[in-house]
């Protein structure tokens, strides 16, 4: 079977077992029409179609040639994602084909969940690839789902890799590998060249580390609407001189989750040949502590000339994104999207599962919301609340990177970033990038958030 690093459906001609998905409303009627021995076996095992139930039906030789999967009620399914994927760990290993029970419009998301459940992070600990596979049902675009799953696998791998093995140079290598795979180009501006080419805040945030800061720029496609993706690539965040406590530093390998998400999204776009002129910008740095670390109270000048007072060196992500967004805006993109593990305030507001996003364009918000529901990638629109602009304006500079008071932390960060996106059509995602507790198709660890929704919505937003 295919490696977990290359998620794929089983070949249609593979020997397979039948999979019957039954909800609680239809289960008893189905059993009434089934062979007597099937109904007796189901009743003896208490199978009634409840969500999460799995029952194997052996043939006369004792082989598991059929299985029943409980699909619960509509209310049950509304409370969880990827119901079908939840059956994988309870099914005997082998290959299955779906016979019935999942509506045509729900099949792509459920089949995607099956692929996502194949993921294994085995860089440091050996383990077996998934041994339970699915033949893509008729009418499901298997190539599309495989590309979406591969993009998510890339994102998960990048976030899960510890910072010792995923610094700015390694993130550059990952971007180069992706570019080579799809025939894209990569340009890298590093270290002192950042100052020479006017990326002062990227350099300032990364200069305290001996792992030199850099800006990665990937380009693919020369025709169609201009789409620019900007991802926060803080490969580890100590907090700088405003040092984080140990309890807050433990997950900081995921602070490059924005970069990982835009690279996963870029893979989807390139693999499925969306007709866009794609540009990906990733400021890749490590926020460290040394004698030349930037300080609270410093005033920095960004690429676009705005000055920023530093009131907390742990609010560094918006600084590196500011230079990258200003650079992105210089080419007048048709759509500019940033993704970042930017604020703890977003997690307090909506928890780890939802990806908060900001846009001033109602039609774009509607497109993202509809797409998110379709591809099981939940999001939540947040406001660019103009009255809070005053909160990011200190006395001695144009902007404050960490307004005091702690109110509306995600909103003020988004407003800060918007100052650098120019007058362009701009959307920002303040993601968490991590699954804290394992769930069907979502193992604990690095997570893609918002990217599938964006991919699904792009044809409508860009009129492709």
Task: Give a brief description.
The chain has 464 residues and is an alpha/beta fold. The chain has helices at 27-33, 36-44, 74-78, 107-116, 142-160, 168-182, 192-196, 200-206, 246-249, 257-271, 317-329, 344-350, 362-374, 409-418, 451-461, and strands spanning 17-23, 54-58, 64-72, 94-100, 132-135, 185-190, 214-220, 226-231, 233-237, 277-287, 299-301, 307-309, 335-340, 355-359, 379-382, 399-400, 426-430, 434-435, 445-446.
Topology, element by element:
Elements: E1 17-23, H1 27-33, H2 36-44, E2 54-58, E3 64-72, H3 74-78, E4 94-100, H4 107-116, E5 132-135, H5 142-160, H6 168-182, E6 185-190, H7 192-196, H8 200-206, E7 214-220, E8 226-231, E9 233-237, H9 246-249, H10 257-271, E10 277-287, E11 299-301, E12 307-309, H11 317-329, E13 335-340, H12 344-350, E14 355-359, H13 362-374, E15 379-382, E16 399-400, H14 409-418, E17 426-430, E18 434-435, E19 445-446, H15 451-461
Parallel strand pairs: 1-3, 1-4, 4-5, 8-10, 8-13, 9-10, 12-16, 13-17, 14-15
Antiparallel strand pairs: 2-3, 6-7, 7-10, 11-12, 14-17, 18-19
- Tally of discrete structural domains: 2
> Approximately what portion of the residues adopt beta-strand conformation?
15-25%
Q: What is the CATH superfamily of the largest domain?
A: Zn peptidases
The termini sit apart by 35 Å
Which CATH architecture of the largest domain? Answer: 3-Layer(aba) Sandwich
User: Percent helix among the residues?
Assistant: 25-40%
Low confidence ranges? none
Provide the residue-averaged pLDDT.
96
Name the shape in a single word.
elongated
Kindly report the CATH topology of the largest domain: Aminopeptidase
Rg calculated over all Cα atoms: 24 Å
| Quantity of strands, as a count | 19
Q: Number of helical runs? A: 15
CATH class group of the largest domain: Alpha Beta
Question: Structural class, judged by helices and strands?
Answer: alpha/beta
Please give the largest β-sheet.
9 strands, mixed
């Amino acid at each position: 079977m295919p490696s977990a690093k290359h998620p794929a459906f089983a070949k249609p001609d593979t020997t397979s077992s039948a999979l019957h998905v039954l909800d609680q409303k239809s289960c008893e009627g189905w059993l009434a029409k089934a062979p007597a021995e099937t109904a007796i076996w189901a009743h003896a095992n208490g199978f009634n179609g409840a969500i999460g139930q799995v029952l194997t039906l052996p043939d006369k030789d004792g082989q598991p040639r059929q299985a029943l999967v409980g699909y619960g009620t509509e209310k049950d399914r509304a409370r969880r994602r990827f119901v079908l994927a939840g059956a994988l760990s309870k099914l005997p290993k082998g290959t299955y084909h779906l016979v019935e029970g999942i509506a045509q419009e729900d099949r792509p998301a459920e089949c995607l969940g099956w692929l996502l459940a194949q993921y294994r992070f085995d860089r440091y600990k050996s383990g077996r690839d998934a041994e339970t596979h699915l033949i893509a049902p008729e009418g499901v675009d298997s190539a599309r789902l495989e590309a979406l799953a591969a993009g998510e696998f890339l994102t998960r791998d990048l976030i899960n890799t510890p910072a010792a093995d995923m610094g700015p140079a390694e993130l550059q290598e990952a971007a180069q590998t992706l570019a080579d795979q799809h025939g894209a180009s990569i340009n890298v501006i590093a270290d002192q060249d950042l100052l020479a080419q006017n990326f002062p805040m990227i350099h300032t945030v990364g200069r305290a580390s001996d792992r030199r800061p850099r800006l990665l720029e990937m380009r693919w496609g020369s025709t169609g609407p201009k789409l620019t993706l900007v991802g926060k690539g803080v490969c580890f965040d100590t907090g700088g001189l405003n040092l984080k406590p140990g309890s807050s530093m433990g997950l900081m390998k995921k602070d490059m989750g924005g970069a990982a998400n835009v690279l996963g999204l870029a893979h989807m776009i390139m693999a499925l040949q969306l007709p866009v002129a794609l540009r990906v910008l990733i400021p890749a740095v490590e926020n460290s502590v040394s004698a030349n670390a930037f300080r609270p109270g410093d005033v920095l000048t960004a690429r676009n000339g705005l000055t920023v007072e530093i009131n907390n060196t742990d609010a560094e992500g918006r600084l590196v994104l500011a230079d990258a967004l200003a650079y992105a805006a210089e080419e007048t993109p048709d759509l500019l999207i940033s993704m970042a593990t930017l604020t703890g305030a977003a997690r307090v507001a909506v928890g780890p599962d939802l990806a908060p996003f900001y846009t001033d364009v109602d039609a774009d918000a509607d497109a993202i919301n509809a797409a998110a529901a379709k591809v099981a990638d939940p999001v939540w629109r947040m406001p660019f609340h103009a009255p809070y602009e005053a909160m990011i304006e200190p006395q001695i500079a144009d902007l404050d990177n960490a307004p005091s008071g702690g109110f509306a932390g995600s909103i003020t960060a988004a407003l800060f970033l918007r100052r650098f996106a120019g007058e362009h059509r701009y959307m920002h995602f303040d993601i968490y990038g991590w699954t804290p507790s394992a769930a069907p198709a979502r193992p604990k660890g690095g997570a893609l958030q918002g990217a599938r929704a964006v991919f699904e919505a792009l044809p409508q937003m860009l009129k492709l």
